[in-house]
Design brief:
The chain is of the alpha/beta class and about 525 residues long. It is built from 20 helices and 18 strands. About 40% of the residues lie in helices and about 15% in strands. The strands form five sheets. An eight-stranded parallel barrel has the order 5-6-7-8-11-12-14-15, surrounded by six helices. It has a three-stranded antiparallel β-sheet with strand order 3-2-4. Strands 13-17-16 form a three-stranded antiparallel β-sheet.
Length: about 525
Amino acid sequence: MSIFVGTERDPADYAVEPIVHHSQDGFYETLTALHQPVYVVRTAHGTGLSTTRPDDDAAVIAAIGPLPAAQLGSAAFRACHGVRYAYMGGAMAGGIASEDYVIALARSGCLGSFGAAGLLPERVEAALQRFAAEIPGLPYAANLIHSPSEEELERAAVELFLKYGVRCVEASAFMDVTAHIVRYRVAGLARTGDGRVLIANRVIAKVSRAEVAEKFMRPAPAAIVSDLLGRGLITAEQAELAKFVPLADDITAEADSGGHTDRRPLTTLFPSILRRRDQVQQDLGYPVAVRVGAAGGIGTPVAAAAAFAMGADYVVTGSVNQSCLEAGTSDEVRHLLAAAGVADVDMAPAADMFEMGVELQVLKNGSMFAMRAKRLYELYRTYDGLDVLPIAERARLEQQILRRSVEDVWQDVVGYFTRRDPDQLTRAADDPKRKMALVFRWYLGMASRWAVVGAADRGLDYQIWCGPAMGSFNEWVRGSYLAATENRRVADVALNLLHGAAFTTRIQQLAVNGVRVPRGCADYRPAPLADDSGGAR
C-alpha cells in the first residue's frame, strides 16, 4: 500500500512541530538536505517529512539515510583518481574540452579530460605545462584518440604524456588495441616492496562495444608488449608485470553521445559491458576489478541517477559541457546548443576516419554540415578522384560546399600536412582517390574550426558535436539560472547534476518503501553551486 505524504488541507491551518513539513515546499527543502536523514512521520495533522527522528518511534513510517552527492558511485574510483565526486567531464576533441575546462573541474573535485585529440603536439605540450603550473597535485586526464589515418599524432601524444608525467589518459575511438596505448600503460608499471604491481599510468577507455571493452579489460597483448620491449620502449620488468594487470582501470560505456558514437541505448549497452567485466574478473581474478562508468545521454539528474542505479561506478558528461563558458568554442555555438532540442541531432562522416565511413553525431539545428558532409562521402564512394567528377558535381562542390576551387583547397592541404604528417601527402601523390579524401577532409576539419572560432560567413557549415542529452539538459534548466549561457559553468553543471542525482535517488528510495511524494516537489531544480549540505555556497 502506498503512503502519500502531505494533506488535503492548507498546512497553514495546523500548528505542527517545526521539524515536520507538510507542504510541498517543505518536502523539497527536506529532501535537498542531502547530508541529513529523512523520516516519513505520521502526525495528528497528516503525514509529513522530517530530518529529525521524533521521540515516538511509532510515528516513523519510513526512513532513509543521508545521501550527499559525494557518496554516489564508486569509492574506489574516487580514491584511485583522487577526486571527491564520481564524475568525469569527458574530452571533446580539438581543445573544446579546454585547459579552463579541465582546471575548473579539477578544482571542483571532479575529473576533467583535456581534448587533446586533433591538436598539434606543441599545443598539447602548452596545455600540459599549464596544468603543471596551475593545478599541481590535482587530478586530470588527457585524451588519447585512436588515429588510424594519422598515427604520428597518436604516437606524439603518448610521448608528451610520458614526458610530462600525465597520470591518466582517456582512450577513445579505439576499435582495437594499439602499441601507443599499450606503451603508455606498461611504461608506468613497477613492483612495490611487498611484491604488488604499482600502476602509475591510469587508463580510462571509452568504448561502445562489449568486444572492444574486453580488449581493455584484459592484459595488454603479448605480441605488442614484446615488440615494445624489443624497441627499448619499456623494461623487461614492465613487460613481465604487464601480464598481471588489465590494460585499463576503468571502462566508460559510451551510449548515444555527441561525436563518435554507435548510438546504442545506455540501458542495453551498460549491462552488456558490466556482464563482460564480471566474466573477465571471474576468469582472471584481478585484486581490483575493472570499474565501469556510464556516458551518453546524461544531461539531467534523472539520467545520472539512472546510471548510478544500474551500477555505474562513475558518470561522464560531454555535450552539456560544450555549452559552458569554459568550453573552447565560440559564443555562436554556445547559443545554438542552448537552443537545441532532443531531436536536433544527426549523423555525419567523421574527418579522422572518413575513408572508413565512420560517422559521428552532430547538431543539425542551424547548420547544413551533416547534409553537406554526407554528400562528400557519396562523391568519395562513387568516383575515383577529383579529376573524374562530372562538371556539374565539381561546380556544386566548389561553389556550395568548399566555396573555393579544388586547387586552392589542395594547397591548404599540402601546407597543413607538411607541418603535421608529411606521410599523408606521400601516400596521396599517386593515388587520386586518396587525394580526393584529403580535400574532403579539409572541409570536415575546417567545419569544426569555423564553429570553434565563430566564423560569421560559414555559420551554415558549423560542425558541432552533440548528442540528444543537450536537448534534455535544456528542458531541465529552462526557467532556471542555468538557462542562460553566461551562467553555464562546468562546475555548476557538474554539481547540479550530481546533487540532483542524489535527490532523485532519495525520491526512489522512498518510492520502494511505498512512500509517494507529490510530483511538484520531486523534480530537482538547479541552484547556484549546491554543495553536499544541500544549500548554496
